[in-house]
Design a protein that fits this description.
The chain contains 17 helices and 17 strands. It is α/β, with parallel strands linked by helices. It folds into two domains: about 110 residues, Urease, subunit C, domain 1, CATH 2.30.40.10; about 300 residues, Metal-dependent hydrolases (TIM Barrel, Alpha-Beta Barrel), CATH 3.20.20.140. The strands form two sheets. Strands 1, 2, 3, 4, 5, 14, 15, 16 and 17 form a nine-stranded mixed sheet that branches. InterPro entries: Amidohydro-rel, Metal-dep_hydrolase_composite, Metal_Hydrolase, MTA/SAH_deaminase. This is Probable atrazine chlorohydrolase/guanine deaminase.
Amino acid sequence: MLYIHATIITVDPGRRIIENGAILVVEDTIKDIGLSTDLLAKYPSSATYDLENHIVIPGLISTHMHVVQSIFRGTADDVDLVSWMCDRIWVMQGNILPEEAYAAARLSIAEMLLGGTTTFLESLWAERYGFDKLVKAVEESGIRGCLGKVVMDVNPDQPAFRTKMHSGLVEGRETLKAAIQMWEKYDGVANDRVKVWFGARTPGGVTTEFLREMCKEAKERNIHITMHCLEERPDREVFESFKMSPMEYCDSIGLLSDRAVLIHMCWVEEREMELLRQTGTHIAHCPASNLKLGSGFCPVPKLLKAGVNVGIGCDGAPCNNTLDLFQEMRLAAWIHKGYNLDPKVVSAEEALEMATINGAKALGLDGTIGSLEVGKKADFVGIKLKRAHQVPNYDPVATIVYSTNAGDVDLVVVNGKVVVKDGKLTTIDEATTMKEGIAAGAAVISRSGLAKVIVPKWPVVRG
C-alpha cells in the first residue's frame, strides 16, 4: 500500500518533516518514504491510500500501563496514593477474575489504539488475571504489547502500608519461575508483537535476595524489567533503610541496565542521574498520574540534560483518567516549563521524541519502531486536520503536541495492518468491548464490597 499526500513527521535521525509525503508499505515494513510525486512515479501499480490534509507521525508508545485498570476508571478520584491503592484499587484488583481482566485489557487496548498508541508496556499483570488472556487481547487487536508479568515475594519487614495489599494480589517466589515460563511460551508470538517482561514489585515490598535473583535470571535470558520507583517522597525513606541511595541500591542488585524501565522517578536526585546514564537505564514519565495523585514532579529537564533516556506513559485509567498520549505529551512539556519557570525546557519536539523514538529505545525496539524510516515496521498514525482547534497549522510538531487529542486520530497502522480507519477500530468491536468492560467493572466492584462506596460525592436525584 502506498500512503500519499501526507505531512510526515519522520522522527528519523535528521528529524525530517516531509510535506506532500508518501510511505510505501509492503507487508509489515516500510519499504520507501519520500515525496508523493516521486513515489507515485516509482510505484505506479501500487494501491494508494490518500492522506491529504493529514499529519502522519510514528505510532505512539506508552512506556507505563496497567491495562487491567480501565474498568476502574473514576473509582478512586481525589485521594492520596496510599488510600487510592490500599482502600480501592488493590481491593478491586484482588477480586478480579480472568474473564473480567480480559474485558479490561480489551477496553484499554481499544482506547489506546483509537488514540494512536500502537505499543504499550504493561507493568504488573498478576497471576490471577490469566496471562494467556492478556496475550489473546494483544493478538486479536493488532497492538504491540510488552507484557510485564508480576514477579515478587513477600518481605516480612516491608513498610506498613504495603502490608495492606489485598490477599488476592499477594504472590510468592514461584512468580519468577512462572514469568520465565510465560516468556518461553509467548515472547515473540503474534508476528513478534508480543514481548514478555518481568514486572517487578517495588523494593521494600519484596526482599533484596529475591530482587537479586530476578535480575540475575533476567540478565542470563535477556529479559527486560520494569519497576515502579520513587513515585512518592516516602519511597526514599525505604531506600535509606538499606544505607545507600535509591539508585545505588538498584545498581547493587543488578537492576540498572539498558533492559530496565523505572517508572515515575519523581524523587530521584540529581547526584544519581549519572549512574542512570552510565548504565543506560530508562525512565517512564507519567505526568498526568503524578499530578492527579499529588506524587510530585519527575525532574525530566535534568534527566534529559544528563543524557538519560526518558519515555512517557499514561499509567492506569483510575489515576489519569484517560489513555491519551497526546495529553501526556502536552503535560510533559507544560508542567516542566511552569515548575522550572523556563518556557524553553521540554520543547514540543522533545515531548514527541519521548512518546516515539525515546519510548522505542526504552523498550529495546528502536531498531524496529519509533520513527518512520525504510526498513522499520510500518507503525504510524494519521491525524486529519478537520476541526477548528487544529488550524492554522504552521508547525506540524507544535500542532501534534499542543493542539491534538486522541479524538483527532483518523488512521492507525500497526505492523502494516490498518487497525483504525476513519476513526473506527477494524480489529475488535468497540461497542461490544465497551459493554463487556462496563459489566466487568460493575461485577468486580460488587464482589469487592465497594458498591455503596463508589458513588458520586454530590447528591443524585433519580426519576
